[in-house]
Amino acid sequence: EVQLVESGGGLVQPGGSLRLSCAASGFTFSSYWMYWVRQAPGKGLVWVSRVNSDGSFTSYADSVKGRFTISRDNAKNTLYLQMNSLRAEDTAVYYCVRGVTMATITPFYYWGQGSLVTVSS
Amino acid sequence: EVVLTQSPGTLSLSPGERATLSCRASQSVSSSYLAWYQQKPGQAPRLLIYGASSRATDIPDRFSGSGSGTDFTLTITRLEPEDFAVYYCQQYGSSPWTFGQGTKVEI
Fold first, then answer.
1. Which portions of chain B are predicted below pLDDT 70?
2. pLDDT at position A121
3. Which of A39, A43, B81, B87 is the most buried (most CB within 10 A)?
4. Residues in chain B closer than 8 A to A45 (CB atoms)
């Protein structure tokens, strides 16, 4: 059974940093692109970042580019999102996501339970 | 960036009725890389439809998707109580992946 379990969320002051982790199991983690998607309270879904299977390619939404860094440790089956210079508008539930297939173009199929990040003083 | 606009914002229906949700893209969606998701309160989204019209695993056949280019539709033929939720469309053919703002289907 595929499982994605996020951790690392919490309350942080504006300008602060936080690192989210996503522990993956039930599939060959090193074969899949992985994604982060966020959802502000009461709002819609927003794609944040993606990383290819070996970590050599990454891309970001314009709203987080230069502040967030996605990475992965295939030996530990873990995905990360390092978030720096956090702003109030980054407050959201962050989901770790895997696609249907190993292909670059794939809809999102497996979602974690989400990790809440609150940026407030 | 492909902007997706969903309508209506809220759909008020009764169990057994038919629901028709629309998703319009600001430019043509590559190869019909259009998906629909269902989200219930406090839960992660669930994939319903991908490739505009293919049902995901274990999705009941009362859910169907159609459309191409810039106009897409999700149809729920007979609403069950568990279908009352928020539905999002998403294009995954060009970066950045984008979602519509959602349609709430309420009783």
1. none
2. 94
3. B87
4. 37, 39, 45, 88, 90, 99, 102
